[in-house]
Amino acid sequence: MSQKTALVLGATGMVGMELVKLISAKKYYQTINLLTRRPINLSDQTINQQVIDFEQLEKYADLFQVQDVYICLGTTIKAAKTKEAFRKVDYEYVVEAAKLAKRGNIEKLLLITAAGADPKSRVFYSRVKGEVEETLKSMKLHSLHIFKPSLLLGDRKEFRLGEAVMGKASGILTKIMIGPLRPYRPIHAATVAAAMFKSAQTDQLGMHVYPSKEIERMGSS
After folding, report:
1. Catalytic residue among 60, 91, 125, 184
2. pLDDT in tens, 11-32
3. Is beta strand 68-71 parallel, antiparallel or unpaired with respect to 5-9?
4. Is 210 a catalytic residue?
5. Which residues contact 182 (CB under 8 A, 6 or more apart)?
6. How far is it, in rounded angstroms, from Cα 60 to Cα 153?
7. What's the CA gap between 71 and 74, in Å, rounded?
8. Which pTM value belongs to this model?
């Protein structure tokens, strides 16, 4: 086991859960701090789990004094109920976490957004994802890794009709979504988690953006 430490935000989400399972099994980190909205049943002694109110994220600034910060936060407008509540989770909490990470002088920040993220998009979801990317890019972190997966496949606590339908059709879609459509092929959450962990083990400085095709390559190798 290395002497490195990590922090994961969004560990109750689909990618976050896969990520925690992976880095816990790999024994790469001496300590893994988790900030979650609800408790997770875990038995790993290296994990320090804190159930928090994300409105009070500043109170946990000391937990950001790690080498790697993984941000897997995200919701849907349906779950959030309003656009304002969605933006609070997918933009405000993410930016606040990035500020605390920078203050903690972290080595790497690894963030999940989405394929199609664009600050100029007419689609609210894609616009917010693009805005958070632009904000974090402007912060000039030592090493920023942005992962832009397409529709995620895997076990999710909340039911999402679109993902359920796409999950059943994923085999067919993988074959027919080629060329310009390839970036939008469904991708497994475990593949995204594996790609994030692989990036965390590199010494790359600066900003790195991974489209779904690259995530698939990294996470499957």
Report:
1. 125
2. 999 999 999 999 999 999 999 9
3. parallel
4. no
5. 212, 213
6. 31
7. 9
8. 0.87
